[in-house]
Amino acid sequence: MDWGRRHRLSRIFDPRSGRTNMLAVDHGYFLGPTAGMEEPAVAIPPLAPYADALMATRGLLRNTIDPAIVRSIVLRASGGPSIVGPALEDEAITTSVEDALRINAAAVTTQVFVGTPFERQSIANLALLVNEAGRYELPVLGVTAVGKELGHQDARYIKLAVRICAEIGADFVKTYYTDGFEEVVRSAMVPVVIAGGKKLETERDALQMAHDAIAAGAAGIDFGRNVWQSPHPVAMIRALRSIVHDDASVDEAHQMYKDLAADEK
Ligand code: 5RP
Fold first, then answer.
1. pTM of the model
2. Of 45, 139, 221, 238, which one is least surrounded by beta carbons within 10 A?
3. Could you give all domains of the chain from N- to C-terminal order, each with its CATH number?
4. Is the beta carbon of 168 within 6 A of some atom in ligand 1?
Protein backbone atom coordinates (compact mmCIF):
# COMPACT_ATOMS: atom_id res chain seq x y z
CA MET A 1 0.00 0.00 0.00
CA ASP A 2 1.41 3.37 -1.03
CA TRP A 3 2.25 6.04 1.56
CA GLY A 4 -0.56 8.30 0.33
CA ARG A 5 -3.25 5.65 0.84
CA ARG A 6 -1.88 4.79 4.29
CA HIS A 7 -1.80 8.47 5.19
CA ARG A 8 -5.41 9.01 4.08
CA LEU A 9 -6.59 5.95 6.00
CA SER A 10 -4.75 7.15 9.11
CA ARG A 11 -6.83 10.34 8.99
CA ILE A 12 -10.01 8.21 9.16
CA PHE A 13 -8.83 5.45 11.52
CA ASP A 14 -7.20 6.98 14.59
CA PRO A 15 -3.78 5.28 14.84
CA ARG A 16 -4.08 5.18 18.66
CA SER A 17 -7.07 2.82 18.67
CA GLY A 18 -7.01 1.68 15.07
CA ARG A 19 -10.73 2.55 14.93
CA THR A 20 -12.92 5.33 13.59
CA ASN A 21 -15.82 7.34 14.94
CA MET A 22 -17.32 8.67 11.71
CA LEU A 23 -20.31 10.98 11.48
CA ALA A 24 -22.73 10.36 8.61
CA VAL A 25 -24.41 13.50 7.28
CA ASP A 26 -24.92 12.49 3.64
CA HIS A 27 -28.62 11.61 3.90
CA GLY A 28 -29.76 14.67 1.94
CA TYR A 29 -28.47 13.20 -1.34
CA PHE A 30 -31.67 11.18 -1.60
CA LEU A 31 -33.75 12.22 1.45
CA GLY A 32 -33.49 16.00 1.15
CA PRO A 33 -33.58 17.99 4.42
CA THR A 34 -33.79 15.09 6.91
CA ALA A 35 -35.08 15.84 10.43
CA GLY A 36 -32.16 17.07 12.53
CA MET A 37 -30.09 17.94 9.44
CA GLU A 38 -32.26 20.68 7.97
CA GLU A 39 -29.48 23.19 8.62
CA PRO A 40 -26.10 21.45 8.38
CA ALA A 41 -24.30 24.74 9.10
CA VAL A 42 -25.94 24.73 12.54
CA ALA A 43 -26.05 20.99 13.29
CA ILE A 44 -22.55 19.90 12.26
CA PRO A 45 -20.01 22.34 13.80
CA PRO A 46 -20.62 21.31 17.45
CA LEU A 47 -20.24 17.63 16.48
CA ALA A 48 -17.22 17.93 14.17
CA PRO A 49 -14.51 17.95 16.89
CA TYR A 50 -15.63 14.47 17.99
CA ALA A 51 -15.78 12.88 14.52
CA ASP A 52 -12.72 11.31 12.91
CA ALA A 53 -14.37 11.65 9.52
CA LEU A 54 -17.44 13.32 8.12
CA MET A 55 -19.33 11.29 5.50
CA ALA A 56 -20.86 13.97 3.30
CA THR A 57 -21.63 15.15 -0.22
CA ARG A 58 -19.61 17.83 -1.95
CA GLY A 59 -22.66 20.11 -2.03
CA LEU A 60 -23.15 19.99 1.73
CA LEU A 61 -19.45 20.60 2.33
CA ARG A 62 -19.02 23.49 -0.06
CA ASN A 63 -22.22 25.23 1.00
CA THR A 64 -22.12 24.81 4.75
CA ILE A 65 -18.87 23.56 6.29
CA ASP A 66 -15.73 25.46 7.25
CA PRO A 67 -12.82 23.20 6.17
CA ALA A 68 -10.91 24.13 9.32
CA ILE A 69 -13.34 22.23 11.60
CA VAL A 70 -13.17 18.82 9.91
CA ARG A 71 -10.50 16.17 10.52
CA SER A 72 -11.21 14.14 7.38
CA ILE A 73 -13.85 13.62 4.71
CA VAL A 74 -15.33 10.43 3.30
CA LEU A 75 -16.97 11.85 0.21
CA ARG A 76 -20.31 10.46 -0.98
CA ALA A 77 -19.73 9.99 -4.71
CA SER A 78 -23.01 8.32 -5.75
CA GLY A 79 -26.55 9.52 -6.23
CA GLY A 80 -29.36 9.89 -8.72
CA PRO A 81 -32.59 8.58 -7.23
CA SER A 82 -34.71 10.24 -4.54
CA ILE A 83 -36.97 8.91 -1.81
CA VAL A 84 -40.05 9.78 -3.92
CA GLY A 85 -38.76 8.19 -7.13
CA PRO A 86 -39.32 4.66 -8.45
CA ALA A 87 -36.04 2.95 -7.42
CA LEU A 88 -33.58 4.05 -4.74
CA GLU A 89 -31.14 1.43 -5.98
CA ASP A 90 -30.78 3.06 -9.43
CA GLU A 91 -27.61 4.98 -8.52
CA ALA A 92 -24.81 6.39 -10.66
CA ILE A 93 -21.42 7.83 -9.77
CA THR A 94 -22.11 11.55 -9.50
CA THR A 95 -18.79 12.93 -8.26
CA SER A 96 -15.47 12.64 -10.07
CA VAL A 97 -12.28 11.56 -8.38
CA GLU A 98 -10.73 14.88 -9.50
CA ASP A 99 -13.38 16.73 -7.50
CA ALA A 100 -12.77 14.44 -4.51
CA LEU A 101 -9.07 15.36 -4.70
CA ARG A 102 -9.94 19.08 -4.90
CA ILE A 103 -11.98 18.64 -1.72
CA ASN A 104 -9.01 16.77 -0.20
CA ALA A 105 -11.19 13.76 0.65
CA ALA A 106 -9.55 10.97 2.62
CA ALA A 107 -11.81 8.44 0.87
CA VAL A 108 -14.72 8.24 -1.57
CA THR A 109 -17.81 6.08 -1.23
CA THR A 110 -20.71 4.48 -3.06
CA GLN A 111 -23.15 1.77 -2.12
CA VAL A 112 -24.04 -1.65 -3.46
CA PHE A 113 -27.58 -3.01 -3.61
CA VAL A 114 -26.89 -6.75 -3.55
CA GLY A 115 -29.95 -8.86 -4.34
CA THR A 116 -31.84 -6.16 -6.23
CA PRO A 117 -32.31 -5.68 -9.99
CA PHE A 118 -29.63 -2.98 -9.71
CA GLU A 119 -26.92 -5.10 -8.07
CA ARG A 120 -24.78 -5.28 -11.21
CA GLN A 121 -25.02 -1.53 -11.81
CA SER A 122 -24.22 -0.63 -8.21
CA ILE A 123 -21.30 -3.07 -8.03
CA ALA A 124 -20.02 -1.63 -11.32
CA ASN A 125 -20.23 1.83 -9.69
CA LEU A 126 -18.03 0.57 -6.86
CA ALA A 127 -15.58 -0.98 -9.35
CA LEU A 128 -15.40 2.29 -11.30
CA LEU A 129 -14.63 4.21 -8.14
CA VAL A 130 -11.95 1.70 -7.10
CA ASN A 131 -10.32 1.93 -10.54
CA GLU A 132 -10.43 5.73 -10.76
CA ALA A 133 -9.56 6.50 -7.13
CA GLY A 134 -6.79 3.89 -7.24
CA ARG A 135 -4.84 6.06 -9.68
CA TYR A 136 -4.28 8.50 -6.82
CA GLU A 137 -4.11 6.05 -3.89
CA LEU A 138 -7.45 7.45 -2.73
CA PRO A 139 -9.21 4.83 -0.56
CA VAL A 140 -12.77 3.65 -1.25
CA LEU A 141 -15.50 2.85 1.26
CA GLY A 142 -18.08 0.35 0.01
CA VAL A 143 -21.50 0.64 1.64
CA THR A 144 -23.95 -2.25 1.72
CA ALA A 145 -27.43 -0.82 1.47
CA VAL A 146 -30.45 -2.08 3.30
CA GLY A 147 -33.61 -0.05 3.91
CA LYS A 148 -36.98 0.16 2.24
CA GLU A 149 -36.22 -2.12 -0.69
CA LEU A 150 -34.17 -4.74 1.09
CA GLY A 151 -35.65 -4.80 4.60
CA HIS A 152 -33.76 -6.24 7.56
CA GLN A 153 -30.96 -8.53 6.54
CA ASP A 154 -29.33 -11.34 8.48
CA ALA A 155 -25.65 -12.23 8.90
CA ARG A 156 -25.73 -14.45 5.81
CA TYR A 157 -26.76 -11.55 3.59
CA ILE A 158 -24.47 -9.01 5.28
CA LYS A 159 -21.51 -11.40 4.93
CA LEU A 160 -22.25 -11.78 1.22
CA ALA A 161 -22.59 -8.05 0.54
CA VAL A 162 -19.55 -7.06 2.63
CA ARG A 163 -17.32 -9.67 1.04
CA ILE A 164 -18.39 -8.60 -2.45
CA CYS A 165 -17.36 -5.00 -1.65
CA ALA A 166 -13.95 -6.19 -0.48
CA GLU A 167 -13.46 -8.48 -3.49
CA ILE A 168 -14.27 -5.58 -5.85
CA GLY A 169 -11.54 -3.58 -4.10
CA ALA A 170 -13.08 -1.47 -1.33
CA ASP A 171 -10.51 -0.54 1.34
CA PHE A 172 -13.17 -0.69 4.06
CA VAL A 173 -16.87 -1.45 4.19
CA LYS A 174 -19.82 0.05 5.97
CA THR A 175 -22.75 -2.19 6.76
CA TYR A 176 -25.45 -2.83 9.35
CA TYR A 177 -25.02 -4.59 12.66
CA THR A 178 -26.63 -7.99 12.89
CA ASP A 179 -26.52 -11.01 15.17
CA GLY A 180 -23.46 -13.07 14.31
CA PHE A 181 -21.42 -10.00 13.41
CA GLU A 182 -18.17 -11.80 14.33
CA GLU A 183 -18.68 -13.94 11.22
CA VAL A 184 -19.15 -10.81 9.10
CA VAL A 185 -15.86 -9.37 10.38
CA ARG A 186 -14.03 -12.69 10.03
CA SER A 187 -14.86 -13.12 6.36
CA ALA A 188 -14.69 -9.43 5.34
CA MET A 189 -10.93 -9.31 4.58
CA VAL A 190 -11.01 -5.52 5.20
CA PRO A 191 -12.09 -3.31 8.15
CA VAL A 192 -15.84 -3.09 8.70
CA VAL A 193 -17.71 -0.15 10.24
CA ILE A 194 -21.40 -0.03 11.06
CA ALA A 195 -24.14 2.43 10.19
CA GLY A 196 -26.64 3.41 12.85
CA GLY A 197 -29.80 3.17 10.78
CA LYS A 198 -33.06 4.77 11.89
CA LYS A 199 -33.09 6.47 15.29
CA LEU A 200 -33.43 3.77 17.93
CA GLU A 201 -35.89 4.18 20.79
CA THR A 202 -33.30 5.14 23.39
CA GLU A 203 -29.73 6.46 23.40
CA ARG A 204 -28.77 3.39 25.42
CA ASP A 205 -29.99 1.14 22.58
CA ALA A 206 -27.64 2.93 20.15
CA LEU A 207 -24.74 2.76 22.61
CA GLN A 208 -25.42 -0.96 23.08
CA MET A 209 -25.34 -1.55 19.31
CA ALA A 210 -22.05 0.34 18.95
CA HIS A 211 -20.58 -1.61 21.86
CA ASP A 212 -21.74 -4.99 20.48
CA ALA A 213 -20.29 -4.18 17.07
CA ILE A 214 -16.91 -3.14 18.50
CA ALA A 215 -16.86 -6.23 20.75
CA ALA A 216 -17.51 -8.34 17.64
CA GLY A 217 -14.51 -6.79 15.88
CA ALA A 218 -15.92 -3.80 14.00
CA ALA A 219 -13.31 -1.16 13.18
CA GLY A 220 -15.66 1.66 14.08
CA ILE A 221 -19.01 3.26 13.53
CA ASP A 222 -20.53 5.74 11.10
CA PHE A 223 -23.71 6.85 12.83
CA GLY A 224 -25.93 9.65 11.60
CA ARG A 225 -29.52 9.85 12.84
CA ASN A 226 -28.73 8.20 16.19
CA VAL A 227 -26.42 11.15 16.84
CA TRP A 228 -28.10 14.21 15.35
CA GLN A 229 -31.68 13.14 16.06
CA SER A 230 -30.79 12.64 19.73
CA PRO A 231 -32.02 15.39 22.06
CA HIS A 232 -28.35 15.82 23.03
CA PRO A 233 -26.23 15.20 19.90
CA VAL A 234 -22.89 16.34 21.36
CA ALA A 235 -23.35 14.18 24.46
CA MET A 236 -24.27 11.29 22.20
CA ILE A 237 -21.30 11.53 19.84
CA ARG A 238 -18.94 11.85 22.80
CA ALA A 239 -20.44 8.80 24.51
CA LEU A 240 -20.16 6.80 21.28
CA ARG A 241 -16.57 7.99 20.90
CA SER A 242 -15.72 6.61 24.33
CA ILE A 243 -16.91 3.17 23.21
CA VAL A 244 -15.06 3.28 19.90
CA HIS A 245 -11.73 4.65 21.12
CA ASP A 246 -11.59 4.01 24.88
CA ASP A 247 -13.38 0.65 25.12
CA ALA A 248 -15.98 2.14 27.47
CA SER A 249 -18.71 -0.23 28.67
CA VAL A 250 -22.35 0.53 27.81
CA ASP A 251 -22.94 1.63 31.44
CA GLU A 252 -19.91 3.97 31.36
CA ALA A 253 -20.90 5.48 28.03
CA HIS A 254 -24.52 5.89 29.07
CA GLN A 255 -23.47 7.62 32.29
CA MET A 256 -21.23 9.91 30.24
CA TYR A 257 -24.18 10.71 27.97
CA LYS A 258 -26.42 11.52 30.95
CA ASP A 259 -23.76 13.67 32.67
CA LEU A 260 -22.98 15.66 29.50
CA ALA A 261 -26.68 16.08 28.72
CA ALA A 262 -27.31 17.36 32.25
CA ASP A 263 -24.42 19.86 31.91
CA GLU A 264 -26.09 21.29 28.78
CA LYS A 265 -29.18 22.31 30.77
C1 5RP B 1 -26.96 6.16 3.41
C2 5RP B 1 -25.75 6.13 4.24
C3 5RP B 1 -25.76 6.86 5.51
O4 5RP B 1 -24.57 7.53 5.67
C5 5RP B 1 -25.96 5.83 6.57
O6 5RP B 1 -27.27 5.36 6.48
C7 5RP B 1 -25.56 6.27 7.99
O8 5RP B 1 -26.49 7.02 8.59
P9 5RP B 1 -27.48 6.45 9.69
O10 5RP B 1 -26.65 6.08 10.87
O11 5RP B 1 -28.41 7.60 9.94
O12 5RP B 1 -28.18 5.26 9.09
O13 5RP B 1 -24.78 5.51 3.90
O14 5RP B 1 -26.88 5.24 2.45
1. 0.96
2. 45
3. 3-264 (3.20.20.70)
4. no
